[in-house]
Amino acid sequence: MKKLRNLLIIAVVGIGLFSLQGCAVIPSPAGVGFFYTGVTYPSPALAVDCNANVKSDKIGKSEATNILGAVVVGDCSIEAAMKAGGITKIHHVDTRTESVLIFFAKKITIVYGE
């Protein structure tokens, strides 16, 4: 009976933790790590293609932060990243996703160009 009770407790705690995972989590193409995620990947903004005629010597970043799924602030738009980097022509755009457990998540847009 004690083993059954322990298994039930572990199952309830596990289900509780996994149900809370959506609080401050941003998905990435590689998935979401339970403890930590830190992935950089090409931007899903399909309208922004790589332009080989534009140099990529400038970098601009913009970000938005999610805390516990209760507070989300920031501007992770391509326009904000271009402004931050002084970019007028885009070479390509990457996205970086970072999260720590269910407590903190950040999405960063990285624009390369001139």
Question: What would you say this structure looks like, in words?
Answer:
This protein has a five-stranded antiparallel beta sheet. 24% of the residues lie in helices and 38% in strands. The mean pLDDT is 81. With 114 residues, it is of the alpha+beta class. It has one domain. The longest helix has 19 residues, at 2-20. The chain starts with a helix and ends with a strand.
Task: State the strand order across the main sheet.
Answer: 1-4-5-2-3
Helix content percent band: 10-25%
Largest sheet: 5 strands, antiparallel
Query: Which secondary-structure class do the elements indicate?
Result: alpha+beta
How much beta, percentage-wise?
35-45%
Order of helices and strands: HEEEHEE
Distance between the termini: 68 Å
Shape: elongated
Task: Give a quick summary of the entry.
With 114 residues, the protein is of the alpha+beta class.
Features:
114 residues; alpha+beta; 2 helices; elongated
SSE map:
Blueprint: H1 2-20, E1 36-42, E2 58-67, E3 71-75, H2 78-85, E4 90-100, E5 104-113
Antiparallel strand pairs: 1-4, 2-3, 2-5, 4-5
